[in-house]
Here is the input.
Amino acid sequence: MDVTVGSVCVAIIVVLVSIAVRYLESVQRKINDLRLKVDDQSKRHGGELVAEVLKAHRVKFVYTLCGGHISPILVACEKLGIRVIDTRHEATAAFAADATARVSGTVGVCCVTAGPGLTNTVTAVKNAQMAESPLLLLGGAGASLTQGRGALQDIDQMALFKPLCKFVARVTRVREIPSILRRAICASQSGTPGPVFVEFPLDTLYFYSLVRKEAGVSDSAKSLSQRFVNGFISHHVNSVFAGAWENHTYDPLPVKRPFATADQVNQCVELIRNSKKPVIVLGSQSTLPPTDPGALTNALTNMGIPCFLGGMSRGMLGRNSPIHIMQRRRDALKDADVVILAGTVCDFRLSYGRVLNRKSKIVAINRSKEQLFKNSDMFWKPTLAVNADPGSFLVSLYELLGTGYSCDPSWPRMLKERDHEKEAANKKKAAEPTDKHLNPLKVLMELDNVMSDDAIMVADGGDFVGSAAYIVRPRGALRWLDPGAFGTLGVGAGFALGVKLCNPDTDVWVIFGDGALGYSMMEFDTFVRHKIPIAAVVGNDGAWTQIMREQVPMFNSSVGCQLTHNSYEKLAESLGASGFLMDRSCDNKVQEVLESARDALHCGKTVLINVLIGRTSFRDGSISV
Here is the structure.
């Protein structure tokens, strides 16, 4: 009873302190409103402060779909040399910012207008949250005096994004813009990275004279009530602009990241030294800053421990590493005596931990405590759980193991032999004729041979992309992008946009399912308008095949799963891109057509290859839920 009373008292004290702090902050703000000067002749606007902060944080691109609420931000960014890329849907802009964050090492920025402009980004922001991507979402809003009074596109945007973002804030004073943005960007990159949201009411972005006029301040008020309202509005506008242009600091705040202790790494060293069959399973977190991907690749290669690569870590070991194992992961995890989960989560992708051998020693490293222990109360138990950055942990592990350590080569050799067996079976299946059109496995194998050695791949689809994950080989670190744990369709165009802008001299190939392409088709206009050439390969089987594989045998119905073998190459051509069609007549010319498309890409053209594909049994047994 005493403990309960004590807990209640502590909770009450915390609430009271929180209320007191907010009250004091409010009082201080009002004092500042009175103390600071208002430059009523200035033609500067809040968008300029936004642009200054972004430039100081090395932001090179802002993705947007324009709107009157955010025009000052876009114009100011352009003036400071930040490239503004406008898309045909707000979700694409947010996906592009996500991709930029993943491959650039800094925050990705999406700026959209109020109301439906922001609601259109919700899926993409949730995807960034689950993929742990540092995305900065800037959103417009109605003027602060009109919020909640039926203004155009006025909704409670803060409530909408609070569950999706690490940090949400509404700007209420122009002078607060730099400090709020600096805190938001720092929060997005600290700890477990994720999206953040900052809302800008109209009166914090436009000129003082315009805001005063639109707020309804009258210079000819006569009645007492008119003068009272006039004074109230005038005071509010002045408080928004008080001290707006005084000296500001724009530089980045220090990013806080969790690192393992020497003792934790040493515990792992002992486990590895005493193991005979260790395995490392890498997830996207292993690619996060501050660890250099090259240093991590070097550490993994020299340790010689067999690795399974997932998410953004795909390609970390190049195309033909003897320790990169792609096939039969479940069998390898059952055989292993030590398993290192480096940023990998025991969710559906590892059967909630059930694929792990209960006799194995499990070392889990994750920046998120929640993800670190996910499902450990049911199906698995970590021998060593480290709430820290996985990439730097693995580099430290290599350094403490010393150059004298290397995994017994017979273990990765045996696992690699399994890979070769599976790959030989895949080649046989690729040679089999399909009932109609082209064999998708054959097309993907030819694509793997045609793409350049430094190409970047973006995956957006179900069945065709599921096959690609086993056939095409990512070329290096940060050279494969898929949506991540949320399994979102529609990331393709946005991801390609962000990746290509960050890697202008590198070929970017999007592997689309025909269903997923529907979300991105109009963005070929974006690629052409902005002269951002990418190549798209569309596996066109005229269906939502990943769903149909289960639905038809189970329910004897394909309702909702049928599409049409549309002429997507002609749609691309109508938007200014180059279109190629591959059908049964191209069975002996697959490589030739792909090479022609690659040559067009190298000439600066955006390319779409519409590949009509038939059905194989390669994906039989794959699940859609």
